[in-house]
Every structure is written in structure tokens, then in C-alpha cells.
Amino acid sequence: MTTAREIMTAGAECIGAQETVLEAAKKMTEMGVGALPICGTDERLKGMLTDRDIVVKVLGVGKDPAEVKAGDLAQGEAVTIGADDDAEEILRTMSEHKVRRLPVIDGHTLLGMVAQADVARALPNPKVGDLLQALSTD
Fold it and tell me: Which CATH architecture has domain 4-136?
């Protein structure tokens, strides 16, 4: 079975919990991504920061993105997937947590990201349809 390591996009980068949301937005723009894992000074994942979080939780409520720290937007424990977990586990985790992107880790080391599109390319159509349905319902 296909593993997360095989379908992930390698080279994911964290935004430090103490870095500003403005710095995160610039990094997202440079990398052409819509989400970044948030890492603490211990390099462990603290959460995910999405472009939507920046718009809704910072700009939309009149906060200054140059003042808000990325770590301030981390909510609970980050949902991740192990590098050697199979595609069925990726589907289950994405569906259960209603997330479109998963950081891929080996121990505590960030290796890459698996996005909904990566799963769509790697799996047969019926499974992809199930995932899309799970992510689209409240």
C-alpha cells in the first residue's frame, strides 16, 4: 500500500511560534503554499497556520499581522501522520479531523506535507470521493 512518505511533498518548512503572522504570510507567498506547520523552539509541531486563519483571526478582526505571533494561533495538538503510515490511515485521519493537509513526521522530525490533492492523485477514485465528501460535510 502507498505510504505518506511516497505521496508527500517533501521540504515542508515550519514557521516559528515566535515569528509574526506577517512573516508567515510572506513565507507562504514565497513557497506558494496555503498552510505552514507551527514549530516551537524545540522544533516540535505546535499546530498549523493557514491563510484562512490569517484572514479570519487576524485581519478580519483588525489585528496587526506584524504583532500577532504564529504560536498565538496554534490550537491544541497538531494532527499529523507518520511517514510510514499507509494511504488508508491518511484517509481516516483527514476524514476524522476534517483537515485537508497533514504534516508528515518521522518521530518528531517534519519530513513533508500530504495534501488532499496528493491523496487524490495516489488513490482510486471511489476512495477520493469518500474523502471529499467527509471534508465537505459539517
Answer: Roll (3.10)
